[in-house]
């Protein structure tokens, strides 16, 4: 007798299980990331079940009527090739059917699959790795003087200043997500301010779980006016951490690859940003790190 299949909203007590699936897939999920996804759109994080036992997940986050994002699309290996993933996928598209543009990050071997559903390749997202603070050059790569700027902890700058800065550099405003992301108790936030208290960059570093179950760190988001200011933020966020540090960055930023490689980061993998619908215009030359690949 065939087991009953269903799709329902995730429950709080299932978040650790889905986080572990993400670890096994090599996503290196941050501590509490999935809880924030759930809180960003309380109707947008789903699990596929057999007899009400979760076997798969998908996040289909609706930021507003113009923009949505699909991620955390997982079916446990032992349940693949039974059509469950397609049912999850169709469920996500149905939920986002009235959104003008849907984004996702695709592994290289999934490009053709998503293209068949109307998604088009936009850019490459590179994942970079630093093996700890000891790999950073002792001296600043950029020699600029910063008499008019200083790096401050995230709680020393107003949320409004950070949200305004972010809104001008993201394809769609995301105040609810960003507020939860930056105020989460896991990790640290730093910002760059001028003498008038205006924001010129910010970033967050958070603990994550690596595929081998060791603890690492993820930087993201990371935004800054210029490469030298991005370097200041990276050095502040990394501090004296002696563990693997990951950062995801779009190749649409023409300065990022040069900066990151000069600071000792190594490119280890890549995914492809794809869109279905009207792609929002968004210059990326001040975005040095994405918050996460699951929510764009």
Automatic annotation (TrEMBL):
Q: What Gene Ontology terms describe what this protein does at the molecular function level? A: acyltransferase activity, transferring groups other than amino-acyl groups
| Coiled coil regions in record | none
Species in which this protein is naturally found: Prochlorococcus marinus str. MIT 9401
- Name-wise, this protein is GCN5-related N-acetyltransferase
UniProt keywords (A-Z) are: Transferase
Q: Where is the N-acetyltransferase domain?
A: 5-143
Q: Does the keyword Transferase apply?
A: yes
Q: Which InterPro entries does this chain map to?
A: Acyl/Acetyltrans_Enzymes (IPR052729), Acyl_CoA_acyltransferase (IPR016181), GNAT_dom (IPR000182), YitH/HolE_GNAT (IPR041496)
